[in-house]
Amino acid sequence: MTSKEIRRKYLTFFKERDHLVIPPSPLVLAEDPTTLFTSSGMQPLVPYLLGEAHPSGKKRLTDSQPSLRLGDIEEVGDNRHTTFFEMLGNWSLGDYFKAEQLPWFLEFLTKELGLVKEKLWVSVFKGDKTTGVPRDEESFTIWKSLGIPEEKIVFYGVKKNWWSRSGEPTLMPVGEIGGPDSEVFYEFADVPHDPKFSETCHPNCDCGRFLEIGNSVFIQYQKTTDNSLKELSQKNVDFGGGLERLAAATSDNPDIFQTDLFLPIIKRLENLSGRNYLQDPETTRGMRIVADHLRASLMIAKDGVLPSNKTQGYVLRRLSRRLLLFSRNLSLSSPEVFLPDLIKEVVKTYDDIFPDLVGKERAISEIFSEEASRFAKTLEAGLKEIEKLEKLDGKIAFYLYESFGFPWDMISEIARERGEEINFQDFEEEKEKHQALSREAAQGLFKGGLVDQSYEVTKLHTATHLLHQALRQVLNEQARQEGSNITAERLRFDFSHPAKLTPEELKRVEDLVNEQIAKNLIVTETVQNLSTALASGARAFFREKYPERVKVYSIGPATLRQSSGQARSGPPFSQEICGGPHVASTKELGRFRIIKEEAVAQGVRRIKAVLEKV
């Protein structure tokens, strides 16, 4: 069964059970400044899990959501970990709960995918005294009634069977939602247990015998200001199952890189390098890393991100340089030759669900080619840096790893050639210090786990709509939004335009925005059918597909004066399909001021602006 068939079967299965198939959110959420990437299917749905009505009016949703998680980047290279993945999901927004969800998922696995029930194990939450959340006896009873033997139902605590985007309850920031979960594992009976991981094997053992293929999360709690958990007004189901892992289970092969989602890339790497994927551990690991990082890099670049040293651009640079480095280890030293071939394989794999990849293939190849050229210079600089050093140690090894992208294997080999030996533990300790700082920084970006809907961010979000329309009026209708990032301090707005704006153009844009603010325009929200919204003139600027029912925010209409002196109502100054939130009227914004205008890519400009008190 191909991955495309699995995806189709899943969406059809839940559509037949009255679920609305919603379009996936983009990997880079332009309207969410609090997180770098969409990391789970539920992330864009948080407002509706908290009780807000979904624009469709439906309480049952399903989709296939592209996601990116970087916490396991060092684990990529084994047979199951990836950075980019596709998450099949279904949600109940206060509708059905455990009694429906668990039987449905088992039915999908056994009847739709044909998995043998005897190879399935499940885990259930064992309760937590600290938070007072009880043992999940209901899920335990349901699984037994469905024919899962009691010895294959395993209880785990908060570290394994509690889900929130920030981890176990003690790590959840105030406002974050989560709850106990029940996971399903597929057992690869031919994989022998490795006792170095645990004395006896169990579903969460890392020996490779078990693979988690789906997780039903029962989101019913929210973290409060006193660090306790309160029950939400509605009980939700949030299910996620990795497409890559489901494909591995249906083929009864524990190596996800031998599924049709990766195999075309692996085969191409074999042809280009003259090596066999399984010929030795280093070749296998290298090909897995190249295949994973290539997919992830393409998906990030598809959403308009360019390599840089900040935020999403830094992640793209890190992933692309790691794949280039491991390509060199596979004797692939000419990126301009091999990258276009590899990119073609990814595009063909996803031409059904991500058709926009096809049109961007050439542009993305050019981005990778430029980055490869820069990286070649960085590698050369790193080697020169090593030549200056009298001795290599763990701290220096990590400096070379972080600054120049040299992996441990490469550094240790260079040390060996110099007749030196580096303590791997020292290198690991330095890396752990860095990862701890990175986790703190990530939590800072996360800002409580919810989309930042503070008043300051809401004001700046509204201001971006005014700025967008002002740019279109001052420049031309082709001044299209290419991305935005908003913090509580400033807005950053990227737009298509071929040349640097003149001081006169910038002043006209700034003045036009402030004119709308001074008019005290009312901001209104309506929910409409997509076709109706577009026909009425609402603009839809983002790359993602839209659902059938959308939110439309209108700023205005302004009051116009006729030649007779009589007032009449005019069209809105700005009207866009948008998820919100916005202020009630423009008088709340204060004074708009542009602080910088610059280029970010060919044909793309960036404006940074602030709102000041009047």
Automatic annotation (TrEMBL):
CDD domains associated with the record: AlaRS_core
Keywords (A to Z) from UniProt: Aminoacyl-tRNA synthetase, ATP-binding, Ligase, Nucleotide-binding, Protein biosynthesis, RNA-binding, tRNA-binding
Top enzyme category: ligase
One GO cellular component term noted in the UniProt record for this chain: cytosol
Organism domain of life: Bacteria
Residue stretches making up the Alanyl-transfer RNA synthetases family profile domain: 1-614
Family annotation (PROSITE patterns): AA_TRNA_LIGASE_II_ALA
GO process annotations (BP): alanyl-tRNA aminoacylation
Pfam families, sorted: tRNA-synt_2c, tRNA_SAD
Recorded GO MF terms: alanine-tRNA ligase activity; aminoacyl-tRNA deacylase activity; ATP binding; tRNA binding
The keyword Mitochondrion appears for this protein: no
UniProt-listed Enzyme Commission number(s): 6.1.1.7
Family membership: Belongs to the class-II aminoacyl-tRNA synthetase family.
PANTHER family in alphabetical order: ALANINE--TRNA LIGASE, CYTOPLASMIC, ALANYL-TRNA SYNTHETASE
Protein name per Swiss-Prot or TrEMBL: alanine--tRNA ligase
Biological source species: Candidatus Wildermuthbacteria bacterium GWA2_46_15
